Amino acid sequence: MIIPAFDFINGKIVRLYQGNYSNQREYDINLYKRFKDYEIQGVKKIHLVDLDGAKNFKERQVKVFKDLISYTNISIQIGGGIRSEENINMFLNLGVKQVVIGSSVIKNKAEVKKWLRIYGSNTIVLALDVMIRNNNKEIAINGWQKKTNTTLEEIIEYFSPIGLKHVLCTDISRDGTLSGPNIVLYTEIVKKFKHIQFQASGGIATLKDIISLKKSGVSSAIVGRSLLENKFTIQEALKCWQNE
């Protein structure tokens, strides 16, 4: 499916360039009107990111998300600094359908294992954001500010025995750049991990990119900047995905 994405800093919609907080662009959009349009067009899921929460969990933008979630019937998945059962329960109680876990995947594997068991594989989405060097898909955490020595493959293999199903994979070098998604990456990991439903994120600029992602075998394409900047419409994106 096509999943429109919105990132928030201080209650405002922004896009970062390659995850860099000092290189951000703000968008003046009536989000309530857009959500209503998405509902009419048949969007099934929206992806929200709390960039403040990702950087510092004490600065979580709870009120912003509470208002948005209460306004729409579209399924919401949300990420950004979710590091405890308390965080997960808070968002689920607000009406979120899926929570996206990032840094804790590296920092607190035992807890994430427990969350997969408690909440189920359809509620927990692992965000594996990678920097690729010599085909090593190294995961970055803390809003992409910290590099790790752990690879995407290692994490998927670690969590798969307990039912891991959903993975949001971002090539950081493509994120917010409109330079096209990393089709080679997605084709490779879809082929290797057939039991995982991958959400592809980063670089989508054209309808051809959407077609290429559908052909790669990913289950979803997360579309941010290209929709915000009207590179194509949500109707065109949905039609492309459905017809391919």
What is CATH's topology name?
Answer: TIM Barrel
Content of β-strand: 25-35%
Pattern of helices and strands:
EEEHEHHEHEHHEEEHEHEHEHH
Fraction in helix: 25-40%
Under the CATH scheme, which architecture would be assigned?
A: Alpha-Beta Barrel
CATH class: Alpha Beta
- Helix vs. strand class: alpha/beta
The overall strand count is: 12
Strand order of the largest sheet: 1-4-5-6-7-10-11-12
How much is the average pLDDT? 92
Poorly predicted residue ranges: none
Radius of gyration equals 16 Å
Oligomer: single chain
Q: Largest sheet, if any?
A: 8 strands, parallel, barrel
What features would you describe in this structure?
It is a single chain. By secondary structure, this protein is an alpha/beta fold. The chain has one domain: Aldolase class I (TIM Barrel, Alpha-Beta Barrel). The chain is built from 11 helices and 12 strands. The protein has helices at residues 31-41, 51-55, 62-71, 85-94, 104-107, 109-119, 152-159, 183-192, 207-216, 225-228, 234-243; strands at 2-9, 12-17, 20-27, 45-50, 75-79, 98-101, 124-133, 136-141, 146-151, 166-171, 197-201, 220-223. An 8-stranded parallel beta barrel has the order 1-4-5-6-7-10-11-12, surrounded by 6 helices. β10 (166-171), α8 (183-192) and β11 form a beta-alpha-beta unit. The model has no long low-confidence stretch (mean pLDDT 92). The active site is at residues 7, 129. One of its GO terms (biological process) is L-tryptophan biosynthetic process. This is 1-(5-phosphoribosyl)-5-[(5-phosphoribosylamino)methylideneamino] imidazole-4-carboxamide isomerase. GO terms for molecular function: 1-(5-phosphoribosyl)-5-[(5-phosphoribosylamino)methylideneamino]imidazole-4-carboxamide isomerase activity. Its EC number is 5.3.1.16.
